[in-house]
C-alpha cells in the first residue's frame, strides 16, 4: 500500500519509508499508517509481497531472511524509479521479525536504503524460541549452515548505509529477548562500525511492546526524529545535528 502526502505535487521528489514485517505467511494491506510520521513530508509504503502457491511459500524454509531481504531491495529499487521518489532517501523500519528483516536488508549492503530502524529485532534464530524457529529452520544441529547464514553477522552494510541506523529494544522483552540486540551491538562495535552510523536505545524493563513508563511515546518520537534528520541529511552524508556549524554562520 502506498500513501501519498495530502499536499502531493507532481515534479517534487519525496523521501520514502518502508514499514515492513515480512515474517513467514504474513501479509498486510493497511488502510492507515501510524500517525507519528509527518506524511506531509514522507511517502509511506508497506511492501508486503504476496506469493501464491506452496512452492513460493516454502522457499524461505531453512534460510529465513535471505529471500525476504532480497525482495525488499528489489522493491526499493523499483520504487526508486518513480519520478516523485527521492531514491537517495528510502528508509526501512520494522518491529520484531520486521526489525530482523531490516537488519538483513542492511547486511546486504545494496545501497537501496539510506536509513534502517530496527525495533525489538531478532538477530540470531538460535536465541529465539524453538517452537517457532524450528518450524521453518529445523534444529540448529540439523541446519547449522542455515542458522549461520540467517543470523545478522555481516557488518559492511551497517558501516556503509548513508544515513546510518537505529536499534531499539526493551531490556525486559518477553518475546525477542534483549540478548538479540545486545549481541548484535557488541558485534557491530567490535567490527568498528562508526558511532556516526549507529544509534542504540534501550528501554529499561520494557517488554516486546515497549510500552511501559512512557517508552512507547519516546520510541515513536525517536523514530520521527530519525526520519526528519534523514530528510535533512546533506550530500556529504552528514545529518543536520552532526554538522559543525549552521549554514551561513560562523565556525565555533
From TrEMBL:
EC annotation from Swiss-Prot or TrEMBL: 3.4.14.5
Catalytic activity, as annotated: Release of an N-terminal dipeptide, Xaa-Yaa-|-Zaa-, from a polypeptide, preferentially when Yaa is Pro, provided Zaa is neither Pro nor hydroxyproline
Residue ranges of domain Peptidase S9 prolyl oligopeptidase catalytic in the record: 52-217
Cellular component terms per the entry's GO annotation: plasma membrane
PROSITE patterns named in the record: PRO_ENDOPEP_SER
Region described as Disordered: 225-252
Pfam families cross-referenced by the UniProt entry: Peptidase_S9
Protein keywords: Aminopeptidase, Glycoprotein, Hydrolase, Protease, Serine protease, Virulence
Gene Ontology biological process terms in this record: proteolysis
InterPro entries: AB_hydrolase_fold, Pept_S9_AS, Peptidase_S9_cat, Serine_Prot_S9B/DPPIV
GO MF terms held by the record: aminopeptidase activity; dipeptidyl-peptidase activity; serine-type endopeptidase activity
Role this protein plays: Extracellular dipeptidyl-peptidase which removes N-terminal dipeptides sequentially from polypeptides having unsubstituted N-termini provided that the penultimate residue is proline. Contributes to pathogenicity.
Recorded family membership: Belongs to the peptidase S9B family.
Protein known as: dipeptidyl-peptidase IV
Native species: Tuber aestivum (summer truffle)
